[in-house]
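Supplementary Note 2. Why include the ligand at all?

Several targets in our set were suspected to adopt different conformations when bound, so apo predictions alone were not considered sufficient. For every target with a known small-molecule partner we therefore ran a joint prediction. The input for D-xylitol-5-phosphate is given below.
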Amino acid sequence: MIIAPSVLTADLADLGNACSEAVEAGLDWLHLDVMDGNFVPNLTFGPPVIAKLRKALGDAPIFDAHLMIENAEESFQQYIDAGCNHISVHVEAVKHLHRCVTAIRAAGASAGVTLNPGTSIDAALEVLSEIDMVLVMSVNPGFGGQSFIPTVEAKIRRLKEAIDAQVAAGGRPVKIQVDGGVKAHNIAMLREWGVSNCVVGSGLFNDKASIADNLAVIHQALE
Ligand code: DX5
Ligand code: ZN
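The joint prediction is reproduced in token form.
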């Protein structure tokens, strides 16, 4: 199970240190929540901040950009240029999904398709042979610290079946990433559903304990 820390609930005034702390705790993915105040009702950061983070953290961490933005097909290249290795776009915010994910891969990044809780898996299935990851939102995007929506189970299980069938036919393995409300108490259940990559925000970055201590509790839950 890959744990991708979401820095959204970290101290954003001290973003570089929050990311370094996560990397030092052994997490080599960083989930970067990019919001445009349009597709979602919140604003975070964009390519200039990500480029500075890349400079501060070096080449090693995998920068996983979750683009909660309109027209990602026009701007994804800026995120790759800033140092992102993986780009996930929202089905609901991209007009030409197939063109967008193939262009992301042609530009040298891995590509992900994101589904809001109210969005069916159909569009992701249409491009399943072209992508590296499906990001299933288990909260409505925009804010950290929300509660996990349990009805995503059926969606994840259907997706897992489709991916297993693709792999059995010699096709590409596709990761399932889940984002929103993932904590120590539900992460083992997600693994059982077929999830291989979990975004954890407030479960890691909170006032209760250090990232390393929170991560130890998550690892214990997965043992
Ligand atoms: C929501 C974001 C998340 C989320 C994760 O729009 O995509 O990555 O903030 O945070 P928690 O784990 O607190 O739900
Ligand atoms: Zn996210």
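The domain at 2-222 is CATH 3.20.20.70 (TIM Barrel). The mean pLDDT is 97. Comparable summaries for the other entries are listed in the accompanying table.
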